[in-house]
Amino acid sequence: MGETEYRNVRLTEDAYQRLKMRKQEGESFSDTVARIAGERSLLDLAGILSDDEADAMRDAIREREEQSRDRLDRLSDEMDS
């Protein structure tokens, strides 16, 4: 394996604290930066669904929310009885 190169990076105190909060146990700061830099952005998902697929997904989510609300209302009514 080749020799590892190191770079110095200047961070504001705020940026350092935010990075430190994202650091997982046993992880170096380099590991943390590599993990975060490899994360996907929600923008990467733009255009992944057709308009019809997106509409169907929205409808399914709305239906599930209504079912959840109905269930909570029934449970609340049962508790009040």
From TrEMBL:
InterPro entries linked: Put_antitoxin
Region: Disordered, residue numbers: 62-81
Keywords: Toxin-antitoxin system
One Pfam family recorded for the sequence: VAPB_antitox
Identification of the protein by name: Antitoxin
